[in-house]
Design goal:
Blueprint lengths: L3 E6 L3 H4 L3 H4 L5 E7 L3 H10 L4 E3 L3 H4 L6 E4 L6 H10 L3 E5 L6 H14 L3 E4 L6 H11 L6 E7 L22 H4 L1 H12 L4 E7 L10 E8 L2 E8 L9 E5 L2 E5 L5 H6 L19 E5 L3 E4 L7 H13 L7 H20 L3 E2 L2
Parallel strand pairs: 1-2, 1-4, 2-3, 4-5, 5-6, 7-10
Antiparallel strand pairs: 7-11, 8-9, 8-15, 9-10, 11-12, 12-13, 13-14
């Protein structure tokens, strides 16, 4: 089996919790180097990959001719620079979401990857959340008829600002619209394609917060309204998804179980029950003819890394194309313009 020699640039929670356990559950990846300087992260790297070489300079990765793939799990404002250097060094690249702070940067990376004939993808793993996969099945199978309204939430309760670049530093790409919003936007675009218009209300609600921590984003299609919401002051959560159509509605509470499993140190390779939701959070379908629970589809983050391996070794089409991840950033830019100008923005 062909080995894809892999390096991680960064090994905070994005690397050790959300990427490494998934990548290491796929045969064929050989992690040889990890860029990090934090003693805590070095310890985690050595625990996860005992034979790995920890380096403190990015040049040790991009100048290594044996490295095939660089996985970027760095603060958002560093994504563009580090991805560009890796592509110029003829390395395939997986970027943790969001792709880049600005769509022009994403376009530059896409063009560079095409020129170098390299694989470039973005870890929009929540396309493979169990709840979203279930919503997608209900919609695609026509159980609701023509869908006229779709609402998705990514709510949390954290009334104090958490130390770190995501919530404290006003760097490009920081704030909840990039952090959680990119997931919701990617899911909506994956299901419905690009909208015709965008409207947004973006707020900073918590004391001491310096970047946005709540938003409501509306995407308008010819016969469909999409509402995407996220906030950090939602103590009592409502439905995660609500979808309404000409034949009925589908309502889903609860969230995919994979994130909590990863936080507990579990990996997909270690359990046959990975991604299986408990029955008490299955969604409810109500139509003119019936009312019943819909068993949740199985969540499976390994799809994205298995696809990445196949794309690098066998030319398989990417599940997450960089152009799709770029369009997520374009929506965020339109949302910020809408907030600034307090108007609906035409999206083309």
């Amino acid at each position: 089996m062909k080995q894809v020699n892999t390096a991680f640039a960064g090994y905070g929670s994005g690397g050790s919790i959300y990427n490494a356990p998934i990548l290491s559950s796929i045969k064929g990846f050989n992690v040889t180097k990890i860029l990090t300087s934090s003693p805590k992260n070095i310890k985690a790297a050595k625990k996860d990959f005992p034979q790995v070489k920890v380096v403190k300079e990015y040049s040790a990765i991009i100048e290594d001719p044996d490295i095939d793939l660089v996985v970027l799990v760095l603060p958002n404002h560093l994504h563009y620079t580090f991805a560009k250097l890796a592509l110029e060094a003829k390395k395939n690249v997986m970027v943790e979401k969001p792709f880049t702070p600005h769509s022009r940067e994403a376009n530059n990376l896409i063009e560079l990857a095409h020129q170098k004939k390299l694989v470039l993808s973005v870890n929009h793993n929540r396309r493979w959340d169990s709840d979203f996969q279930t919503v997608k099945k209900v919609v695609k199978n026509g159980l609701l008829g023509m869908v006229v309204e779709y609402e998705a939430h990514f709510d949390r309760f954290r009334n104090e600002v958490k130390p770190g670049w995501k919530e404290e530093k006003e760097n490009p790409g920081s704030g909840i619209l990039y952090d959680l919003g990119s997931h919701l936007i990617d899911q909506a675009l994956n299901l419905f394609g690009n909208p015709k218009e965008v409207f947004a209300d973006i707020r900073t609600q918590r004391e001491g917060a310096t970047v946005p921590d709540a938003f409501e984003l509306l995407l308008f299609y010819p016969n469909l309204k999409v509402t995407l919401k996220a906030g950090m002051l939602v103590k009592d959560k409502g439905p995660t998804f609500q979808v309404f159509g000409t034949k009925g509605s589908f309502v889903k509470f609860g969230t995919d179980v994979q994130e909590e499993a990863l936080k507990e140190g579990k990996r997909p390779i270690d359990t046959s029950e990975w991604g299986v939701e408990p029955k008490n959070i299955w969604g409810k379908l109500k139509t003119v003819q019936e009312e019943n629970l819909i068993e949740s589809e199985r969540g499976n983050y390994t799809v994205i890394y298995q696809n990445l391996y196949n794309a690098i070794t066998a030319g398989e089409a990417l599940a997450v194309k960089p152009e799709q991840a770029r369009d997520v950033i374009r929506i965020i830019e339109a949302a910020q313009q809408s907030q600034d100008e307090r108007r609906v923005i035409t999206f083309g």
